[in-house]
Amino acid sequence: MINEMKAYLAIDIGASSGRHIIGYYCDGKLKIEEIYRFKNYLKDYNGSLVWDIDYLFEQVKEGIKIIFSKKIDIISMAIDTWGVDYALLKGEEIIYPVYAYRDSRTKKYISEIEQLIPANELYNVTGIQFQEFNTIYQLYTDKKMGRLDEASDFLLIPELLSYLLTGVKTHEYTNASTTGLLDSDTKAYSVEIIKKLGLKQSLFHSLLKPGYVIGNLKPSLALELGGNTLVKLCASHDTASAVNAIDMVEDSLYISSGTWSLLGVKLKEAIKTKEARLANYSNEYGKDYIRFQKNIMGLWIIQTLSKNLNLDFVELIKLAKSTNKFQLFDVNDNLFLASNDMVNSINEWYEKNNLPKVDDFAIIANSCYHSLANSYKKAIDELESITNKVYDNIYIVGGGAKNTYLNELTAKYTKKNVIALPIEATAIGNLKAQMEE
């Protein structure tokens, strides 16, 4: 029985859902069990997209409370989420709202930042791909809005939730690498970038590695939740944890396929060439390697279309496969970043690119799957050119690993051996970091 085992808890929160997953060894094998699941969602706040942090924290607590009520002996727990987003704090208090990366508030300051630090100089320091929602652009926007004036700290989302549990503020290494503020040579926050942007140096602290023990739950929370345990850092950026879980053949590609598709390869050294920058590849950190990868819009397109057509994923695939017709589009266009009406956004893209609009929902659905697979092919072609190496295998983890139609199309477009691992990769990577001494 699980409550007789020494167990670890991974709290894995994505943009659309979160889950509490227990991990323990039985007969020499890692076993996992989902104990609690909850929805996550964006909120509208005066026309901006924000996260409901208070709700998220209540859900984190609720899952822990259920686990303690089951008398499961938890050695430790750790939290991972998406990267980039953060909360500002004034002492112990959160400065609301907590903006979401899909909000468009940074757009008007991008050119201003590029005047202070040209794109090529920024890439030479950080090796991080340009995304208008990167933390660097969000923090500069907060500065322009006056939100940094009273801020004493900024914490990325998983470290924020860990702080709310323990009262200890931390900055984790892999997650910090998503900010666009780290020097990839020193592997610390770049003093040069912080100075040039006029950000408060006091916001930036030393980075801690996965496995670091943050501390126990606050006494008041332990009383409220009915137990106590150690809180640790995992690779708190969910992609870093997911890649850590993949037992793959050397020199293989990976796709962490969820709301975003993160396609890349493990490397020993960062690549910061002009070719890498223009292809918009990122050098983010794993535990002891570089994740040379690219963000692709991913299943967000499928998820939104599913809602628009009121079809579940199985029904949507059936609809897509009911026709051989499709019309490719660029899934990475900003038109799709915060779209609430994917059919309309796709047709807007077609119109903008002098292609005929599509009224048939089956063709629209099929176009989404083909366009995603085609985007993988383009990204791999770029990656192979940059690294001067051909890769035979693609390991796919995350929700997309269960999508057999997309996997088939990925194999067809890329001409690679696709190995789909429909496992809770992020949670497993989270658990591994806790279990390693």
Q: Would you write up a description of this structure?
A:
The protein has 437 residues and is α+β, with helices and mostly antiparallel strands. The protein has two domains: 2-237 and 429-435, ATPase, nucleotide binding domain (Nucleotidyltransferase, domain 5, 2-Layer Sandwich); 247-420, ATPase, nucleotide binding domain (Nucleotidyltransferase, domain 5, 2-Layer Sandwich). Helices cover 37% and strands 23% of the residues. The chain is built from 16 helices and 20 strands. It has helices at residues 53-69, 110-116, 119-126, 135-145, 157-166, 173-176, 191-197, 219-225, 238-245, 274-278, 300-309, 313-320, 342-352, 361-387, 404-414, 425-435; strands spanning 6-13, 17-26, 29-39, 42-45, 48-51, 73-80, 86-90, 93-95, 98-99, 153-156, 182-183, 188-189, 213-216, 230-232, 253-257, 261-267, 282-285, 290-296, 393-397, 417-420. The strands form five sheets. It has a six-stranded mixed sheet. It has a six-stranded mixed sheet with strand order 17-18-16-15-19-20, sandwiched between helices. Helix 11 (300-309) runs antiparallel to helix 14. The protein is globular and about 60 Å long. The relative contact order is 0.13. The mean pLDDT is 95.
Name given to the CATH homologous superfamily of the largest domain = ATPase, nucleotide binding domain
Work out the radius of gyration.
Answer: 21 Å
CATH arch. level architecture of the largest domain = 2-Layer Sandwich
- Percent range for helical residues? 25-40%
- DSSP helix count? 16
Q: If strands are numbered along the chain, what order do they take across the biggest sheet?
A: 3-2-1-6-14-13
Largest sheet: 6 strands, mixed
Q: Which segments are poorly predicted (pLDDT under 50) over 5 or more consecutive residues?
A: none
Query: Structural class of the helices, strands and pairings?
Result: alpha+beta
The geometry reads as globular
Instruction: Write down the CATH topology of the largest domain.
Output: Nucleotidyltransferase, domain 5
The first-to-last residue Cα distance is 25 Å
The CATH class of the largest domain, by name, is Alpha Beta
